[in-house]
Design goal:
Radius of gyration: 15 Å
Order of helices and strands: EHHEEEEEEH
Largest sheet: 7 strands, antiparallel
Number of helices: 3
Strand content: 35-45%
Pfam family, one: Polyketide_cyc2
Structural class: alpha+beta
CATH topology: Alpha-D-Glucose-1,6-Bisphosphate, Chain A, domain 4
Protein name: SRPBCC family protein
Distance between the termini: 34 Å
Strand order of the largest sheet: 1-7-6-5-4-3-2
Helix content: 25-40%
CATH architecture: 2-Layer Sandwich
Number of strands: 7
CATH superfamily: START domain
Shape: globular
């Protein structure tokens, strides 16, 4: 099983960062590679079980199900249902933690998934740098 983990500090309070990112479908508004995203069946985007369907800038289409959500812990977890990437059993978590000194936020985004050895380096780059790190920097630019 592969593991990708990215963390960073955002110069904004955790409450502000969480308020901006808690919308499971909000990535279409801030992530640089998301072209269009919608929640299927009109369900609320913070309801466990909802599915977001979206396209990315390279034309890929993905569907992801929200499997855990907590305003108290400022975290959500999701799994990929459909993806053009050669992966299986993908589960990812987003978490925002307050940094009390300086009123900043420590953000983490990680995923575990199965991938063949020949695809692992490419998928780690796509998930880690192109998705997670790029997304965190885009959030920092918007809320910081």
């Amino acid at each position: 099983m592969a593991h990708v983990y990215v963390s960073d500090v955002i110069d904004a309070p955790a409450e502000k960062v969480w308020a901006f990112t808690r919308d499971y479908n909000g990535h279409g508004d801030w992530h640089p590679i998301i072209e269009k995203s919608e929640i299927e069946e009109g369900r609320p985007s913070d309801q466990v079980g909802c599915v977001r369907a979206f396209t990315v800038s390279d034309g890929g289409f993905l569907r992801e199900r929200l499997i855990a959500f907590s305003d108290t812990d400022r975290t959500f977890t999701y799994t990929i249902l459909e993806s053009p990437m050669p992966i299986e059993n993908y589960v990812a978590t987003w978490r925002v933690t307050p940094i009390t000194e300086g009123d900043r936020s420590f953000v983490e985004w990680w995923a575990d998934f199965d991938v063949s050895p020949e695809d692992e380096a490419d998928i780690r780059e796509r998930v880690g740098r192109n998705t997670f790190a790029a997304g965190i920097r885009a959030i920092a630019d918007r809320v910081g």
